[in-house]
What does this fold into?
Amino acid sequence: MRAELAVVGGGPAGVAAVLMAAGLGLRTTLVEAGRVAGKVAEIGALDNVPGGWSDGAALARALAADIDRLRAAGRCTLVSGRALRVRACEEGTETELADGRVLAADAVLVATGVTAPDPGDAPWLDAPRGLRLPPLWRSVPERIASGAAPAVVLGADRPLGTWLRAHPDAAVRLDVLHSAADAHKTEEVAGDSRVRLTEVRSATVTEEDDGLFHVTAVPAHGAARALRTATLLGNLGSRPALLGGDLVPGPDGYCDPAAQHPRILVAGDLRSARYQRIVTAQGSGAEAALGHYYGARGVGDTNQAPARRRSRPDA
It folds into this structure.
């Protein structure tokens, strides 16, 4: 039976959307390429999610259990597969999967989130092509503290502060190199004695034969620094995990919900670089599903100002 709402992405936003939609009685299909909440499970520490969650693994198990419960009750269908593109049709939407399947629904909610950029994508970094760095947010203190030299962290994105607050007693030393664009994010960690912050104009990374990394940093002020470490971590932010088809990204690659076709909804981190938090993702997923429910039934909200008109992509 055709779904009333297809949800692409089983992270916090997608699960919240499925929960809301199922609670409203909508026939709902969730499309997920891996495990439900698989990325959440890899988060080493949490300190800003209501409910007392201290690590991602426990929260991920709870989110996966929510989907299992809905499936057992016949209120949600889980489709395992990687979505390639979404399209708006005259009577609904189509979600095309990598294996050739096409899923039809009245509307589709895209909650594919973000992915880590390659180090070479940062304009201030010169790194070997194809270099993949373990992200700071997945790391455990024991691994970072195992080296004699400080761990070198490339980028001062917000997970740095979250990680340090979640591990207040971790005996680690972090040498954080960041660009001027991240300078405003360093205020929350500037007083932490475990961190050495260096704003740089550029940095060059080379991987040595013995598995160590050599980093040459050119600070915004002062002489160049040469660093050698066994632990090199990425903390460079993220980029949108886009789908093809009728999804409309903005100049920064993120997808403003107001810019999409009325049948294509967007929730979670894919919306904006500014609101990338688990709780904001959950709220946006639930809100998008609720908005679709009322919109499909012609029920307006008299307490809200008129929404911006959504543009319709060319056919």
Q: What stands out?
A: The first helix runs from residue 12 to 23. The two ends are 27 Å apart (CA to CA). The longest strand covers residues 195-207.
